[in-house]
Amino acid sequence: MSTAVTEGRRGDRVRAGWWRVVAALCIASLLACATACTSKSSENDAERAGHGPSTARLTDLDPVPIESDTAPVLPVTVRSFDGSMVTVTDADRIIAVDRFGTLAQIVYALGLGPKLVGRSTSASFPAVRDVPNVAGGNGSMNVESILALQPSVLLTDTTSATAAVREQLGAAGVTIVYFDPSRTMAGVLPQIEAVAAALGVPERGQVLAQRTGDEIAAAKAAVPAHDPPLTIAFLYLRSTAIMMMAGPGSGADTLIAALGARDAGTVVGLTEPFTTITSEAMLGAAPDVLLVMSDGLESIGGVDGLESIPGIAQTPAGRDRRVVDMSDAVLLSFGPNTGRVIAALSAAVYDTGHA
Q1: Cβ distance 242 to 274 under 8 Å?
Q2: DSSP assignment of 187-215
Q3: Where does residue 17 rank: exposed (0-12), middle (13-18), buried (19+ CB within 10 A)?
Q4: Rounded-to-integer distance, Cα 89 and Cα 314, Å
Q5: From CA 143, how far away is CA 156, in angstroms rounded?
Q6: Which of the following CATH numbers is that of domain 76-217: 3.40.50.1980, 3.30.450.40, 3.30.310.50, 1.50.40.10?
Q7: pLDDT band at 140; cut points 50, 70, 90
Q8: How far apart, in whole angstroms, are the C-alpha atoms of residue 312 and residue 224?
Q9: CATH code assigned to 225-349
Q10: What distance in Å separates the CA atoms of residue 119 and residue 96, rounded to the nearest whole number?
Q11: Residue 139 pLDDT level (bands cut at 50, 70, 90)
C-alpha cells in the first residue's frame, strides 16, 4: 500500500475523530442549555406562583399627617394605662418611646411631628431620624437623655418603663402618660384615640382613627382568597443569638389573620407570644410562608442564612424559599400605617405586585 493512501486513511480517521468530539460538545451544550432553560422556567413558574423571596415595601415609610387646624386644648386629665389619672398641661415638647415606634408614628400622624423632641430606636421612619434617640431597640430608656431634653410630656408604655425608670422620672417631675404595650389589630384605633386625647387633640384622633380604620378595611377586603388558607410563620431574628417564632398574643398573629392566613405558631400550639425556634415546631407548623423583619433577615445572612436554622429547610416555605421581609420600622407597629402595611404584605405574599 502506498504511503499516500496510508496517510489519507490516517487523515480520514483524524477528521472523523474530530467530528465526533465536535458532535459530543454540541450535544453537551444543547443538554446544558435545555437544563438551564428548564431550571429558569421552573424559577419563573415559582415566581408566578408566589414562591421565592420577596420584600413588602411601602412607597413612603412616613405616616401621612392628617390635615387639621384644630389646636390642642390643654390642660387635659386622662387615665393612664397604669390606672393613674394624669394631667397634661403642655404638649410643646413630646417624647414618645415604645418598642415598636408606634407612639411616635401616632404623634407624627396627628400633625404634631414638629413637637416631637425624643424617640426610641424603633421609631426609625425618615421624618424623625434627626429627632434625638433616648431609648434602645428594646425600648429601654436612658433617663439622663430624657431629662436633658426637658420634655413637657412623655408618652410610653408599662413595659418600656421599668420600675426604676418610673421612680427616677417621677422624682424629676416629668409628666408621664402610659399606654397599652400590646400590639394587635383591634388595638390600633383605641391607641390612636388615647394618644390624641392625652395631647389635647381628641378631634384629630377621631379623624385619624377613622382614616386608619377605613384603610385597614379596604386592605383586608382586597386580600386574595386562598383555599386552603396559607400558613405563615413570623420569625423574630436578631443574629443567631435570638431566633424566635411568634405565637398567640405576639401581634403578628392578628396581622397574619388580616392576610387571610393561619398563624403557624398558633397552629403548632405555642402558648407564648414568642418562643425559641425548634426543628420540631417548624416541622409541625409546616409554614407555607416565612415573614420576617428586613434587618433581622440581614442579621443572619439573608435567605441563605435563614435556611440554616433547624427545621426551616424542610418546611414548604424553606423548600420554596418563600420568604417575605418588611422594614422593621412598620411591620409590627400597628399604628397609622397599618392599612398600607397589610396591602403591601398582601401584594408580596400573594404575588400580586407591590404597593
Answers
A1: no
A2: THHHHHHHHHHHTT-HHHHHHHHHHHHHH
A3: exposed
A4: 57
A5: 13
A6: 3.40.50.1980
A7: confident
A8: 26
A9: 3.40.50.1980
A10: 5
A11: low
